[in-house]
Write a structure and sequence with these properties.
It is a single chain. This protein is an alpha/beta fold. 43% of the residues lie in helices and 23% in strands. The strands form 2 sheets. Strands 1, 2, 3, 4, 5 and 6 form a 6-stranded mixed beta sheet that branches. Strand 3 and strand 4 form a beta hairpin. It binds flavin mononucleotide. The site of flavin mononucleotide has 22 residues, from helix 1, strand 3, strand 7 and helix 6.
Amino acid sequence: MRVLVTVGSARGGTEGLGEMVAADLRAEGLDVDMKAPKQVRRLDGYDAVVVGGALYAARWHRAARGFVRRHAGELRARPVYFFSSGPLDDSASDKDIPPVNGVAKLMEQAGARGHVTFGGRLMPDARGVVAHAIAKKHSGDWRDPDQVRDWAHSVAGELRAS
Ligand SMILES: Cc1cc2nc3c(=O)[nH]c(=O)nc-3n(C[C@H](O)[C@H](O)[C@H](O)COP(=O)(O)O)c2cc1C
């Protein structure tokens, strides 16, 4: 089974989560491609798709939103899973955080089967005025490889069963 993982990320943290998801799905025996949203022309040849998006001001990164809108019809025809990232604290590891409203709407458009929120990352030297101000008080890496592995395991199980 061939799976596409594609991620909208501004500062690399969510891209790193996409790489973890891809590696964990490969370890589950799936054939996985990871591509930037704009590199994807058509979904022919993919049996399932995972879309990840960084959260900024309670919205998904633009590239992830655009990908879902462009490919909504093709996405509806195959199993689709979303992940968001992410809170700059332990909350995503401690509890299930539902999708923000915009992502919930995109899930409907794509017919997505599931969603998870993973913790985020903000480097101390983050660029951008607002990001830099937040990073001065609140930098760190809350991405949780165990949570990612567990989620990938459950997605792989659902795909095998479908
Ligand atoms: C300006 C700014 C706004 C953010 N807004 C949110 C938010 O609304 N919700 C959230 O969970 N995380 C928020 N974050 C945290 C980011 O989602 C987190 O740093 C994430 O890992 C960024 O992913 P990226 O490195 O792939 O761009 C925000 C971070 C910054 C710098």
